[in-house]
Amino acid sequence: IDKYEVTNALYKACVGEGFCGPPQENGSYERVHYYDNSEFDNYPVISVDWNQANAYCEWRGTQLPTEAQWEKAARGTDGRTYPWGEGPDCSKANYNGCQSDTAVVGGYESGISPYGLYDMAGNVWEWVADWYSDTYYQSSLLSNPLGPESGELKLKSLRGGSWAKDEISLRSAHRGWLAANLWSNLVGFRCARTP
Protein backbone atom coordinates (compact mmCIF):
# COMPACT_ATOMS: atom_id res chain seq x y z
CA ILE A 1 0.00 0.00 0.00
CA ASP A 2 1.28 3.48 -0.78
CA LYS A 3 3.25 5.18 1.97
CA TYR A 4 1.46 8.46 1.19
CA GLU A 5 -1.87 9.70 -0.10
CA VAL A 6 -1.87 10.49 -3.83
CA THR A 7 -0.86 14.12 -4.25
CA ASN A 8 -2.01 16.78 -6.70
CA ALA A 9 1.32 16.52 -8.54
CA LEU A 10 1.08 12.73 -8.94
CA TYR A 11 -2.51 12.92 -10.11
CA LYS A 12 -1.64 15.69 -12.61
CA ALA A 13 0.76 13.27 -14.35
CA CYS A 14 -2.16 10.91 -15.04
CA VAL A 15 -4.32 13.79 -16.26
CA GLY A 16 -1.45 14.97 -18.45
CA GLU A 17 -1.30 11.57 -20.15
CA GLY A 18 -5.03 11.70 -20.82
CA PHE A 19 -5.84 8.66 -18.70
CA CYS A 20 -7.44 10.51 -15.76
CA GLY A 21 -9.99 13.28 -15.74
CA PRO A 22 -9.19 16.38 -13.67
CA PRO A 23 -10.77 16.78 -10.23
CA GLN A 24 -14.40 17.88 -10.26
CA GLU A 25 -13.46 21.11 -8.50
CA ASN A 26 -10.24 23.11 -8.60
CA GLY A 27 -10.40 24.54 -5.06
CA SER A 28 -10.30 23.09 -1.58
CA TYR A 29 -12.35 24.11 1.44
CA GLU A 30 -10.58 27.46 1.95
CA ARG A 31 -8.42 27.73 -1.18
CA VAL A 32 -9.89 28.89 -4.48
CA HIS A 33 -6.81 27.65 -6.33
CA TYR A 34 -5.65 24.31 -4.96
CA TYR A 35 -5.26 21.69 -7.67
CA ASP A 36 -3.86 24.18 -10.20
CA ASN A 37 -1.51 25.91 -7.73
CA SER A 38 1.99 24.38 -7.54
CA GLU A 39 2.19 25.51 -3.90
CA PHE A 40 -0.13 22.58 -3.16
CA ASP A 41 1.53 19.95 -5.37
CA ASN A 42 2.42 17.84 -2.31
CA TYR A 43 -1.05 18.04 -0.80
CA PRO A 44 -3.62 15.25 -1.31
CA VAL A 45 -5.65 15.33 -4.48
CA ILE A 46 -9.33 15.84 -3.61
CA SER A 47 -12.65 16.21 -5.41
CA VAL A 48 -12.20 12.98 -7.37
CA ASP A 49 -14.92 10.35 -7.38
CA TRP A 50 -14.30 6.63 -6.86
CA ASN A 51 -14.07 5.99 -10.60
CA GLN A 52 -11.35 8.62 -11.00
CA ALA A 53 -9.39 7.24 -8.05
CA ASN A 54 -9.71 3.72 -9.45
CA ALA A 55 -8.59 4.88 -12.91
CA TYR A 56 -5.49 6.54 -11.45
CA CYS A 57 -4.49 3.35 -9.61
CA GLU A 58 -5.03 1.30 -12.78
CA TRP A 59 -2.87 3.77 -14.72
CA ARG A 60 -0.07 3.05 -12.22
CA GLY A 61 -0.57 -0.71 -12.47
CA THR A 62 -2.04 -0.88 -8.96
CA GLN A 63 -5.53 -0.84 -7.44
CA LEU A 64 -7.42 0.77 -4.62
CA PRO A 65 -6.83 -1.23 -1.41
CA THR A 66 -9.63 -3.35 0.00
CA GLU A 67 -11.03 -2.26 3.34
CA ALA A 68 -9.23 -5.18 4.98
CA GLN A 69 -5.89 -4.23 3.42
CA TRP A 70 -6.38 -0.59 4.36
CA GLU A 71 -7.31 -1.40 7.97
CA LYS A 72 -4.37 -3.75 8.52
CA ALA A 73 -2.02 -1.13 7.05
CA ALA A 74 -3.48 1.46 9.42
CA ARG A 75 -3.60 -0.50 12.66
CA GLY A 76 -1.14 -3.34 12.32
CA THR A 77 -1.74 -6.66 14.04
CA ASP A 78 -1.99 -5.50 17.65
CA GLY A 79 -5.49 -4.00 17.46
CA ARG A 80 -4.49 -0.40 18.11
CA THR A 81 -7.26 2.18 17.93
CA TYR A 82 -5.33 4.70 15.81
CA PRO A 83 -2.35 4.14 13.51
CA TRP A 84 0.08 5.36 16.19
CA GLY A 85 -1.68 3.61 19.08
CA GLU A 86 -3.96 5.48 21.46
CA GLY A 87 -4.94 9.09 22.10
CA PRO A 88 -5.28 11.41 19.12
CA ASP A 89 -3.93 14.95 19.16
CA CYS A 90 -2.96 17.58 16.60
CA SER A 91 0.68 16.43 16.53
CA LYS A 92 -0.39 13.04 15.10
CA ALA A 93 -3.11 13.88 12.56
CA ASN A 94 -4.94 16.68 10.79
CA TYR A 95 -8.49 16.45 12.20
CA ASN A 96 -11.28 18.32 13.96
CA GLY A 97 -9.94 21.82 13.50
CA CYS A 98 -6.21 21.14 13.93
CA GLN A 99 -6.01 22.85 10.55
CA SER A 100 -8.87 24.36 8.60
CA ASP A 101 -8.14 22.49 5.35
CA THR A 102 -5.90 19.76 3.95
CA ALA A 103 -2.27 19.55 5.06
CA VAL A 104 0.89 18.58 3.20
CA VAL A 105 1.10 14.82 2.67
CA GLY A 106 3.47 13.09 5.10
CA GLY A 107 3.60 15.99 7.54
CA TYR A 108 2.69 14.03 10.69
CA GLU A 109 5.77 11.98 11.58
CA SER A 110 4.44 11.01 15.03
CA GLY A 111 1.21 9.66 13.48
CA ILE A 112 2.64 6.96 11.22
CA SER A 113 1.19 3.44 11.19
CA PRO A 114 3.09 0.32 12.32
CA TYR A 115 4.13 -0.16 8.67
CA GLY A 116 5.50 3.37 8.31
CA LEU A 117 2.52 4.80 6.41
CA TYR A 118 1.54 8.46 6.73
CA ASP A 119 -1.87 10.12 7.09
CA MET A 120 -3.82 6.91 7.60
CA ALA A 121 -5.89 8.97 10.03
CA GLY A 122 -7.11 12.45 9.15
CA ASN A 123 -6.18 14.83 6.35
CA VAL A 124 -8.61 13.26 3.83
CA TRP A 125 -10.97 10.30 3.82
CA GLU A 126 -9.63 7.65 1.46
CA TRP A 127 -11.54 5.71 -1.17
CA VAL A 128 -11.09 1.94 -0.94
CA ALA A 129 -12.11 -0.77 -3.41
CA ASP A 130 -15.05 -2.23 -1.50
CA TRP A 131 -18.72 -1.62 -1.96
CA TYR A 132 -20.19 -0.46 1.34
CA SER A 133 -22.36 -2.82 3.37
CA ASP A 134 -23.40 -2.40 7.00
CA THR A 135 -23.55 -6.14 7.52
CA TYR A 136 -20.78 -7.63 5.35
CA TYR A 137 -18.25 -8.06 8.15
CA GLN A 138 -20.72 -9.98 10.30
CA SER A 139 -20.42 -12.96 7.94
CA SER A 140 -17.25 -12.36 5.90
CA LEU A 141 -14.07 -14.41 5.85
CA LEU A 142 -11.89 -13.72 8.88
CA SER A 143 -8.71 -13.54 6.81
CA ASN A 144 -8.42 -10.93 4.04
CA PRO A 145 -12.10 -10.43 3.14
CA LEU A 146 -12.48 -8.91 -0.33
CA GLY A 147 -15.69 -6.99 0.31
CA PRO A 148 -19.25 -7.54 -0.90
CA GLU A 149 -19.99 -8.16 -4.59
CA SER A 150 -22.41 -5.23 -4.76
CA GLY A 151 -23.19 -2.19 -2.68
CA GLU A 152 -26.10 -0.68 -0.84
CA LEU A 153 -27.31 2.34 -2.84
CA LYS A 154 -24.12 2.12 -4.97
CA LEU A 155 -22.03 3.32 -2.02
CA LYS A 156 -18.28 2.79 -1.85
CA SER A 157 -16.40 2.62 1.43
CA LEU A 158 -14.16 5.35 2.81
CA ARG A 159 -11.51 5.03 5.49
CA GLY A 160 -9.40 7.28 7.71
CA GLY A 161 -11.49 10.36 8.54
CA SER A 162 -10.54 13.85 7.44
CA TRP A 163 -9.38 17.26 8.61
CA ALA A 164 -13.01 18.23 9.26
CA LYS A 165 -14.03 15.18 11.33
CA ASP A 166 -13.66 14.24 15.00
CA GLU A 167 -11.49 11.58 16.63
CA ILE A 168 -14.19 8.89 16.23
CA SER A 169 -13.76 8.95 12.43
CA LEU A 170 -9.96 8.69 12.84
CA ARG A 171 -10.21 5.24 14.41
CA SER A 172 -8.59 2.65 12.16
CA ALA A 173 -11.71 0.44 12.26
CA HIS A 174 -14.15 3.29 11.49
CA ARG A 175 -15.94 3.11 8.15
CA GLY A 176 -17.47 5.84 6.04
CA TRP A 177 -19.22 5.79 2.67
CA LEU A 178 -20.06 7.88 -0.37
CA ALA A 179 -21.73 7.10 -3.69
CA ALA A 180 -19.10 6.07 -6.26
CA ASN A 181 -20.06 8.87 -8.64
CA LEU A 182 -19.84 11.63 -6.01
CA TRP A 183 -16.81 13.57 -4.83
CA SER A 184 -15.91 15.78 -1.91
CA ASN A 185 -13.14 18.15 -0.83
CA LEU A 186 -12.77 15.83 2.18
CA VAL A 187 -11.93 12.73 0.10
CA GLY A 188 -8.74 11.51 -1.58
CA PHE A 189 -7.10 8.09 -1.89
CA ARG A 190 -3.95 5.95 -2.03
CA CYS A 191 -3.20 2.84 -4.09
CA ALA A 192 -2.03 -0.67 -3.29
CA ARG A 193 -0.40 -3.52 -5.15
CA THR A 194 -1.24 -7.15 -4.41
CA PRO A 195 1.91 -9.29 -4.76
Short description:
This protein is α+β, with helices and mostly antiparallel strands. It has 5 helices and 4 strands, in the order αααβαβαββ. It has helices at 8-16, 50-59, 67-75, 136-139, 167-170; strands at 125-131, 155-159, 175-179, 187-189.
Fraction in helix: 10-25%
Q: Biggest β-sheet, characterized?
A: 4 strands, mixed
Class from secondary-structure proportions? alpha+beta
Number of helices: 5
Helix/strand order, N-terminal first = HHHEHEHEE
Tally of strands: 4
Q: Please report the distance between the alpha carbons of the first and last residues.
A: 11 Å
User: What global shape is seen?
Assistant: globular
What distinguishing features does this structure have?
195 residues; 4-stranded mixed sheet; 4 strands
Walkthrough of the structure:
- The protein has 195 residues and is α+β, with helices and mostly antiparallel strands.
- It has a 4-stranded mixed β-sheet with strand order 3-2-1-4.
- It contains 5 helices and 4 strands; from the N terminus they run αααβαβαββ.
- The radius of gyration is 15 Å and the shape is globular.
- It starts with 7 loop residues before the first helix and ends in a 6-residue tail after the last strand.
- Helix content is 18%, strand content 10%.
